[in-house]
Design brief:
15% strand; disordered N terminus; 199 residues; alpha/beta; five-stranded mixed β-sheet; globular; 7 helices
Length: 199
């Protein structure tokens, strides 16, 4: 039987309503890999200080930033931070996308050559140049046999999250230099997702 809601003036007080202090919109440049990982991280963290919305949209980096800007403008009061997560891969417009994001207050988490370098760092340090996803894949598969970029389970990476952040910082302490190979700025985003409420 449903519990009756206390009537106004009944003397019973409703408990305090907990509200997230920050809302993050994260738009990923692929429909599956990054989105699945970040949704899994969000569900794992269950951080009451942060509400996280994750979307995937397969397109070029500048199209992604433009899309994220449009989503933010549709919901002007809804998002405290907007992030775009994408790969350098073979996109010619990465620098333009990063600059566009800066102009419009959208943060970028860029991985070179691809997001899988971030996944690899959960298991091992890796500092050697890697040209492409195809060359990185066997390195990741040593730790995640049968890796499938369309089915990413965060639980496979959970125990290495802190190590991945430390290793990524060593590759690029700024988290913003997408010209370094390998590099990833994803640690900045995961830090924001895990950060407690501001005092």
């Amino acid at each position: 039987m449903a519990r009756a809601f206390p009537r106004e003036g009944s003397g019973r007080r409703r408990g305090p309503v907990r509200r997230s202090s920050r809302t993050l919109l994260i738009v990923c440049g692929s429909k599956e890999t990054e989105r699945q990982y970040l949704q899994g991280l969000r569900d794992h963290l269950r951080n009451p200080a942060v509400s996280v919305v994750v979307r995937g949209k397969a397109c070029s980096p500048t199209q992604l930033v433009t899309y994220a800007r449009g989503q933010r403008d549709l919901n002007r009061d809804g998002y405290d931070e907007v992030w775009c997560v994408f790969d350098v891969d073979e996109f010619p417009d990465v620098a333009d996308a990063v600059a566009l994001g800066r102009r419009h207050g959208i943060r970028t988490a860029v991985s070179r050559p691809c997001f899988e370098v971030w996944l690899l760092l959960h298991f091992a340090d890796h500092r050697a140049h890697v040209d492409t996803y195809k060359k990185l894949l066997p390195l990741l598969q040593r730790h995640v046999p049968g890796y499938d970029k369309t089915r990413v389970d965060f639980l496979a990476y959970r125990d290495g999250l802190a190590s991945a952040g430390e290793r990524a910082r060593k590759l690029d302490p700024s988290g913003a230099d997408h010209t370094r190979n390998p590099s990833t700025g994803v640690w900045q985003l995961t830090d924001r997702m895990a950060r407690p409420a501001d005092p």
